């Protein structure tokens, strides 16, 4: 934040979105679009931006390839918006160079793990109404989370009421594994499906045997009803 304040004193001569302020210091270019009532990410952000602040706006969604043209981007601040949906390829194109990504204080309940696990950036995910599930657990274990904000990743909703309102890390420390719950649910569903198919096969076999038996009985009755040819011959 201190670095952003310093950048504000140096004007940037190249093109800049009308709703933002662009500055430069020591070759590092910043685009500051804080508190501008933006509802979506500006389309005309300069390609050589290193720092991008979009905090304190009304952005609700991060679409696929939203920052793909910003190959020099190192820090991205999307905190204090109204973000509810993040597409799987939202950060495609900036994964390699991005060092900090702030998504705190939004309305995010869930997020595709593919959107974050490809990043090497330090993530801030605190103060969102998270639904504690397997995908969020995998992000917690595998992504680079800001250690100062991990305790503020709280379960707003969860499969069990006792987890609601508790930090996700605290819930997981008790031995809870949301992914194993999902796997057990999948196993049960597969078992029920297989049992259903097996029952259908059994019913088909029974019907087939019964139908053949009835045909055989009718054929035997037909044969026994025929006149005795040997008797006529005598």
TrEMBL record:
It is a single-pass membrane protein. One of its GO terms (cellular component) is plasma membrane. PROSITE patterns: LRR (PS51450). It holds the Pfam family LRR_8. Keywords: Leucine-rich repeat, Membrane, Repeat, Signal, Transmembrane, Transmembrane helix. It is found in: Membrane. Residues 15-51 form the LRRNT domain. Belongs to the LRRC3 family. This is Leucine-rich repeat-containing protein 3. SUPFAM superfamilies: L domain-like (SSF52058). It comes from the Eukaryota. Residues 1-22 form the signal peptide. The chain crosses the membrane at residues 188-209. Its main location: membrane.
């Amino acid at each position: 934040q201190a670095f952003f304040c310093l950048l504000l004193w140096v004007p940037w001569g190249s093109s800049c979105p009308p709703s933002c302020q662009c500055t430069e210091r020591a070759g590092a270019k910043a685009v500051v679009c804080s508190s501008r009532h933006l509802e979506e990410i500006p389309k005309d952000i300069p390609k050589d931006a290193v720092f991008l602040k979009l905090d304190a706006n009304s952005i609700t969604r991060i679409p696929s390839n939203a920052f793909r043209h910003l190959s020099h981007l190192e820090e991205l601040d999307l905190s204090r918006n109204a973000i509810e949906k993040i597409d799987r390829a939202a950060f495609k194109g900036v994964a390699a160079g991005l060092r900090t990504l702030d998504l705190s204080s939004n309305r995010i309940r869930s997020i595709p793990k593919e959107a974050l696990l490809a990043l090497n950036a330090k993530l801030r995910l605190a103060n969102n109404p998270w639904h504690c599930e397997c995908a969020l657990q995998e992000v917690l274990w595998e992504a680079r989370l800001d250690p100062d904000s991990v305790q503020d990743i709280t379960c707003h909703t969860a499969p069990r009421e006792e987890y609601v309102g508790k930090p996700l890390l605290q819930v997981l420390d008790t031995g809870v594994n949301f992914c194993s719950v999902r796997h057990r649910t999948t196993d049960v569903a597969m078992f029920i499906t297989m049992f259903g198919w097996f029952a259908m096969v059994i019913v088909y076999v029974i019907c087939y045997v019964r139908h053949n038996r009835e045909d055989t009985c009718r054929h035997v009755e037909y044969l026994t009803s025929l006149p005795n040819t040997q008797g006529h011959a005598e």
